[in-house]
Structures are given as C-alpha cells and as structure tokens.
Amino acid sequence: MLLLVYSFFSTLLLAASEQPFVSQKTNEVTYCIDPNWAPYEAIRNGIHVGISAQYMQLIAELADLKFKLVPTQSWQESLEFVQQGKCQVIPMLNTSDYRKQFLDFSVPYFEAPNVLVARAGMPMLQGYSGIGNRTVGIVQGYRQVEYISRHYPGLRLKLIPSEEEGLKQLANGEFDVMVGSLMSVNMHINNLELEDLNIVGYAEPFDSLAFGINKSYSYLVDKLNFAIERIPETRKVEIYKQWNNVQIRYSRNYTVMILTLFIVLMGLLWLISRNRHVGGYKRIIQQKNEEISALQATLLEKNKTLGFLSAHDNITGLYNRNHMIQRAEEEITRFHRFHTTATLIAIDLTPVDEGLFTHDHAIREEVLKTVAQNCLNTVREVDVVSRFNGEQFVILCPQTQLDSAKILADRLLECLVTHYLLGDKFNVAIGMSELRDAEEFPDWLERTIKALYQSKRQGYGNVSIAQ
C-alpha cells in the first residue's frame, strides 16, 4: 500500500516538473490586445486588425510561432488577463515599473508620439507642465496614468474606457484636456467628425511599444527578440504608410464669411451697375486676408514646434548640446550666489569594431537610443541628460557633491556594460568633475573631458574623476 501511494505522488511530481518544459516546446502563444485602439490594434467582428496584427504575422513566420487571440472587452481587462496568465503576451504596450512586476518585455519595435487634445480655443500647451488646474482625461490602464501620478501628482485625472469614448466626452465638455496616441486620436476625430477638437501639444514620454510577456513564459522573450530584429526595414515602412492617416484639418469662421458676403451683396443690389467691379475686388481681398490669417496661425504653430526641437536631439530625444550649455551656465550662476556645488558626468561610447557605425547607421541609432534610455532610467529627476555630440553624452547633476555623483556614475556604468545590445561590442568610458570656485563652463567641461580620456587610457569600463 505504501509503495502504491509513493508511486502515485512520484508520478504527480514528475508531471509537474515536466510541465514547464512541455509549455516551452509548444508553438501556440495566446495573446490579448486593446480592443479599441485603432489603428494600432483593435478587434473588429472577432478579428484582430491594425498595426500590431501585421507585425505579429511577420513575427509568427520568423519565430515559427502560432498566435491565438483571447478576446477582451477593454484594455484594463487585457492587462488583468495577462497578469493572471489567461493570455501569455500582449503585443503592443510600453514598459513601466508597475508592469515589470508581472511582465517581461521584448525589444521595442514601434514608436509613436502621444498628444494633448482639447476643444477649439485652447492655447498650445507645453506638455503636462502647461496644463495647470485643468482636468486631464486618460484611458484607464495606460502607462501615462502611472507616469503622471509619479511626475505630475498635482494634475487632476479622469479615467476613461477608451480613446474614442474619451474624445466624445471631451467634445461634451466633461473634462478639459485628453491624452492620446497621435494616429488613433486623429482617426477618431475624422471618423466622428469632431470639428471642435484640436491637437494642442505633445505629451511626454512618446510610446515605445514592445511585447509584454507573462513572467511564467519568459522563454518567449528571446524568440520574439530574434524575430523583431529580423523584420526588414522596408516592411516597417510599408506598415506605417498603410496605417498612417494623419491629416491636416483647416477650420474657417463661416459666420464672419457669411456676414461679409451679405453686406457685399446688399451693396451690389444698391449700386448694381456702378459698384460691380468694386464688389469683386472686395471678395478677392477678403479671401487673401483669410489665407494670410491661416498662414500666420500655421507659422505660430511651427515656431512652437521648432522651439521644442531646438532644445532636443532628433535621434535620442535627449536635450542637445546648446540646451546643456544653457542649463550648466544657470547652475554656475546658482553656485556663485548660493555656493551649492554641482557635478558634471561625461560618457563616451566607442565600438570595438571601428567600422560598425560607418557601415550601418541603423545600428548606430539603435545604440544611441539604448544608451539614452539607460541614462534616463538611472538618473534622478533633477539631473539633466544630453547627447553632447556624436557618441558622447553629458549629464549635469545640480546641487550634487562628487561622492553622490560617483555612486550615480558607477550605477550607470554597470547598466551600460551589462546591457545585451552593448555588451562586448562597445567600450564605455566615464569621466566626471565637481564645479570649482570662479570656474566657467568651458573650464569645467575641459576638466571633465580630460577625466574621460583618462578613463579611456585606463582601458575603459571605469569611472575617472578629474583632479
């Protein structure tokens, strides 16, 4: 009898121990999506359509996987399903600290901007900092909810079920500003003919979309990364062109136009023979004035966009050299007035193969974005990160002594040298220096760069401090 019981439990334990292995051998992968996020992804008549559907078709072929849709009613339900293991992956979502608790992530394969939408008459907003005391609508479960709660806790939020429903509520005046994805927002505004809604600004951070994998199925990460890295760039461009429906929308004040035409017509009836040509000239002048007004409005919007781009690097999205110099000069002024020190950190990335960047610009951009993301994930909110030039990054640590900045630099070095994309392909050197009395920025930067060269001479992979 004891032998039978022992044999029964041994069989159960053996079956349990073999289960993960069997799961890893199957090619069928269940997944959930946001059912109302067209054109990125959506469920129409029980079928998965959109950008993510086409990417998954490519990935299925490259990774020899079979994807099976698990339908849900909302984005929040999809997140709950993947957390509970009812589906193994979600194909299109951003990383966040909360999601990393129960998900592993592939490399990103699609990037898209987020925008602020408001009713006509709202001025241009400079990101979340320009919203003030207005109420912000955002889809429940989106990464932006976690981002705003952490970095802008003073903003008032209204959770909405989907972007389409949110735009309807915004048009009805139920809140002031909505955060949404550019392509999705533009599509819904045009389909619903919401003429009174306009895009009034960008919302940081932009979407960097990847696969989210339930940690019980983490073996899928390598398969998905393998396939994503082999998707041809031409196919990515084709998919983007197919689904990009962003259109320029012009609006006119027809009340003013009708009133003016009425006055002109009354004048023509009174002086039909004498003023016929005068009326024609007035209509031409009016049309030209309207075109000038439209051009002035467009120019104002372009100038605001140019102001944003002039302070940021167009590849990494980090601050550029000019903005870093400006911020450093402000910190030096603060140091002279209040004697609060500051530290400058310089990072240089050198490929082991000197021809790597020369022959493949796509690899160069991907590496620069990877370094930028690691810097942003490691530094504090008060620190200023910039791509200074080429493969050189500079970080300003305001009101930070050398010892504290050294801890930050060591942590950043560890992140870079252990990253799978950088690894053995790139050498990382870091130099740093603390601001001295009566020192201007060029001298401060020169000492920091000398420390960076010292790190290179010592064989890379170390943090060198300026003397």
UniProtKB/TrEMBL annotation:
Domain of life: Bacteria
Keywords: Membrane, Signal, Transmembrane, Transmembrane helix
Range of residues in the leader sequence: 1-15
InterPro entries to which the protein is assigned, alphabetical: GGDEF_dom, Nucleotide_cyclase, Rev_trsase/Diguanyl_cyclase, Solute-binding_3/MltF_N
Pfam families referenced in this protein's UniProt entry, alphabetically: GGDEF, SBP_bac_3
TM helices/strands, residue ranges: 254-273
Keyword Cell membrane in annotation: no
Domain GGDEF intervals: 340-467
SMART domains reported in the protein's UniProt record: GGDEF, PBPb
Family of this protein: Belongs to the bacterial solute-binding protein 3 family.
UniProt protein name: Transporter substrate-binding domain-containing protein
